[in-house]
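Figure 2 data, in text form.
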Amino acid sequence: MPKTVALVEAKEGTGRVAECQVKRGDEVVWDAGGTHITVWFPQRGVFPKSGIDIRSGKGSLTVKEDAPEGTYHYAIYCHDTKRFLEGNSHPVMIVKGP
């Protein structure tokens, strides 16, 4: 079953996102609603590519089967508000073993 990362709009146009815990092989879905976002992982090795551009609606990536366990910070930029989303400083995704 896919893990959906919901983007929550907060006051003053600042978006927020909660921590996400996944396992290798999980599909991660980012739900951008009607906004245009870019999700970017600066550290390689979690997904087959380092980011995804979602123009509206949902976009997904699958955690690599050989992704190292660990905590990964990533960034989500909202093109509509011209701001980064917040959550634990930057959003965090934790990859756990089987």
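Caption note: The radius of gyration is 13 Å.
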